[in-house]
Amino acid sequence: MGKYQCYYCEKDTDSAHQIYFFQSKQEREELLCDVCYSDWLESLKSEP
User: Fold this and answer.
1) Which of 1, 6, 18, 48 has an alpha carbon within 20 to 30 A of 40's alpha carbon?
2) What is this structure's pTM?
3) Which residue range forms the structural domain that includes residue 22?
């Protein structure tokens, strides 16, 4: 069992990436696994 749980896919993982985003005018801090973090970075590239 991993040390962390991914915010997006909810899988347990031994390594995690910390991200920050705004939701309802409040800043949130969450952890993403390697796969979800990679997907999140790709989504940022496609934003205008």
Assistant:
1) 1
2) 0.79
3) 4-45
